[in-house]
Known about the structure:
With 873 residues, this protein is α+β, with helices and mostly antiparallel strands.
Amino acid sequence: xxxxxxxxxxxxxxxxxxxxxxxxxxxxxxxxxxxxxxxxxxxxxxxxxxxxxxxxxxxxxxxxxxxxxxxxxxxxxxxxxxxxxxxxxxxxxxxxxxxxxxxxxxxxxxxxxxxxxxxxxxxxxxxxxxxxxxxxxxxxxxxxxxxxxxxxxxxxxxxxxxxxxxxxxxxxxxxxxxxxxxxxxxxxxxxxxxxxxxxxxxxxxxxxxxxxxxxxxxxxxxxxxxxxxxxxxxxxxxxxxxxxxxxxxxxxxxxxxxxxxxxxxxxxxxxxxxxxxxxxxxxxxxxxxxxxxxxxxxxxxxxxxxxxxxxxxxxxxxxxxxxxxxxxxxxxxxxxxxxxxxxxxxxxxxxxxxxxxxxxxxxxxxxxxxxxxxxxxxxxxxxxxxxxxxxxxxxxxxxxxxxxxxxxxxxxxxxxxxxxxxxxxxxxxxxxxxxxxxxxxxxxxxxxxxxxxxxxxxxxxxxxxxxxxxxxxxxxxxxxxxxxxxxxxxxxxxxxxxxxxxxxxxxxxxxxxxxxxxxxxxxxxxxxxxxxxxxxxxxxxxxxxxxxxxxxxxxxxxxxxxxxxxxxxxxxxxxxxxxxxxxxxxxxxxxxxxxxxxxxxxxxxxxxxxxxxxxxxxxxxxxxxxxxxxxxxxxxxxxxxxxxxxxxxxxxxxxxxxxxxxxxxxxxxxxxxxxxxxxxxxxxxxxxxxxxxxxxxxxxxxxxxxxxxxxxxxxxxxxxxxxxxxxxxxxxxxxxxxxxxxxxxxxxxxxxxxxxxxxxxxxxxxxxxxxxxxxxxxxxxxxxxxxxxxxxxxxxxxxxxxxxxxxxxxxxxxxxxxxxxxxxxxxxxxxxxxxxxxxxxxxxxxxxxxxxxxxxxxxxxxxxxxxxxxxxx
Length: 873
């Protein structure tokens, strides 16, 4: 094309708007020619900016031809609401259906009866009579009744295990666990002639202090009892054994499962396991971990599960460490080298499967798996997923390459507009994130964090609307001041291509990293691309009319439906966690960031509507108004974060520890002794909502760190000191438990390699914490705990979690310290022992009871007595 031809093409495009206005008056042949001419320009030709301020292109642009703002906004809003409603229907918890009347089917009412009996016992902390005697007696009683009613084809064996052991774990920054004489109730259901292989089902009947532990995890034990009853009464013989582990020390950081898998004789039979665990209250059963590399387990779930709810996304999120929680799955995986997944149908399938006997032969890579609205599960090997992903990438490369590989004079403007549009899109996402973060920081600074905790829609109205409005605002500015007089259809196509390119980039990255979750990006690339190719001809001929909108939204149905499906799961998981994430992580910032990310994803294929629409003023005004009104309501404290509603509880969690602390020097003399109630709030709001109800708890009694003591000189139950740095210390009289803790040095020996071996003995309640800090010039070499190698917690100190059952001997252990410097006047090492009285009369004190009664009903104050003694050696 020569220079005159190029000028003609540019001039033709510039007057395109004026020509469109005159189409109605043009003869039919001329109108068709002009339409065809305009579409050529939109497909790959140039676009120009407005040169003369008095030109009519901007004013006349899209007059009567652009997409109606109201139609587009209402269509998208109704579309997303309809998808959300569909997701909600699919995620409804299964309703209790009553007694089936069929012996081979699961009886939900019977399981409910088990649950009510277990929870009526009350809190069941390890070492308490409620856990070690009453619950164990009830379980054995029900198992005996089940055995009496069982079919002669099966044999039931019962064993009560009392293991002792120790291990280290990297959970919560790392610490070491020691347990003595804790309880496991183990049941083996097997064919009459026995079995050499078994599948394990695990639950735990212990609970945290002051909680009946219904959802965590008595309900799972109730389900297991009912599954045992159904399987044992079945007239169908099993091929393999089923081992039911009712473990009594999971809340003690997975101790009972470790005791079973490392010490019980039946552990050698286990080839696979199902771990039943809870997070939050209510909801559907979710398979959130499988492995390691056992695709046959996923296939078992796919084949047997009647109401599937599973996604590899949950597995990869959980294994990433983002969620500050852990389950017995880790113990069975790390110490048992057996696979598992997270009951009657699946368990029965595994117990009759030929693959169970040779489980190790089927370890060949990971699986991509996900359910479709709870109807069925799609699963395929990750290597197949990688092939599919790269095929989708090649389709995008071909689609975009077809435009870029045209002669230079046809693609120069498209390439430039594509790159500029990519930059504008990234800027809009970045600025939307900054906007919601600014709002979140301000809300946190004025003390209104967690306003959405009990009203989740508040977060959407505050942060979601702000993010969407900012994205629309940036693109509206670009449309008005940069893409002046550009053809609407051309811009719509460019920004669709940009969104496709971005999702394709994510697809390549996730696939390259070997993440099975890349299938989501593949869905978000493949279906939009197919939709674009199917609608391209109609779009060029008729533009963005009602038919186009309907078909476009229909084509996006699958990616948007599944995205909302996963987003719901994310918020169901993270919202309760943010209510107990500690005082150092601003939850509003976390939630605002997640909402901004969700907004970026959901808005990506709707950005082109901004350029197709005649205007966005009303949409931006509505979103801004909703955001401002919500912001003002939040700032005024209208939305209270907590609730005592039994149907949907959102409590504020508070720990109250009435303690007496004693500090000794190197000579053994007491240098400090004090007593008080140590108060910890487990969320970011601290005591701001408590002070109006309990005035004595205020910032004047903030606790101060003892710099020379491990973990600041406080009796931490678990090493969460790095998550909770805001504490309160209310002076109170000394505590005097009837079963006081004793700690003494038994021996001090010098080893042949010039280190010092210190042997200690400790006695006390069922739960104790031991802390170690090496002083300047010293190094902790080894100890008799875990695997012998000391594991530091965050901050450099050492933390040991100890628990025992009803009867236990004195706890003896040793540590070995290396002296780097010859003279150490301040000593080599500082150690401390905290004794936690979580059950019985020693758990309570008059001051603790009085303070606890002052707390409002929307709080969950967990209170106990403890002592803390520090020594220097």
